[in-house]
Amino acid sequence: MYDHYAGALYGVVLRIVQSKEYTEEIIQDVFVKIWNAVHQYDPSKGRFYTWMINIARNTAIDYLKSKGFQNELKNQPLPDFVYNSAELSTTNNSSDFIGFNNVLKGLEVDKQELIDLAYYQGYTQNEISEKLKIPLGTVKTKMRNALMKLKDLLKDYQ
User: Fold this and answer.
1) Does an H or E element contain 46, and which?
2) How far apart are alpha carbons 133 and 59 in whole angstroms?
3) Could you read off the pLDDT of 41-58 as tens digits, one per residue?
4) What is the three-state SS of 66-128?
5) By the 8 A CB rule, do 119 and 133 touch?
6) Contact 11, 2 (CB under 8 A)
7) Which of 42, 45, 54 is nearest to 8 (CA)?
8) What is the pLDDT of residues 83-103, one digit of tens each?
């Protein structure tokens, strides 16, 4: 069973967890759960593969929500965690299909900074507020204005 289904389940878990190390650990747990609960599988409710995928998905989500995982994240510097998934990325940073960096230059500098912090560096609006030392309401208003302006700039690319 492992030889037949491990690859597919690995892909599902990797997509959720985005870490090869954690995925390998979770896959072991998934197969133990499947082995222990195989008597609960009901063919009238769906295919065996679908049942296993659901176990894998739920196990991965549970792992992300676990206190142990959350504590590990707290112990890592954020930039290393955020930018460490380059090998999992399906995009090539050197390719910019529509010249998006040039489109961003059409925004005011402060709006470019907000977009960069939120979408490229993964900051929340609260974190942006603290980092830039501006009120949260101002961040939200400027972000909304930046996204509306960006939408206008991107009309030509649809």
Assistant:
1) none
2) 39
3) 999 988 898 899 889 988
4) CHHHHHHHHCCCHHHHHHCCHHHCCCCCCCCCCCHHHHHCCCCHHHHHHHHHHHHCCCCHHHH
5) no
6) no
7) 54
8) 555 444 444 444 444 566 777
What pTM did the predictor assign? Answer: 0.46
- 59 in Cβ contact with 13 (< 8 Å): yes
The counts of H helices and E strands in the chain are 9, 0
Residue 148 tokens read as 């509306």
Q: Which residues contact 147 (CB under 8 A, 6 or more apart)?
A: 115
Contact status, residue 26 vs residue 59, Cβ threshold 8 Å: yes
What is the gyration radius of the CA atoms in the chain, in angstroms? Answer: 21
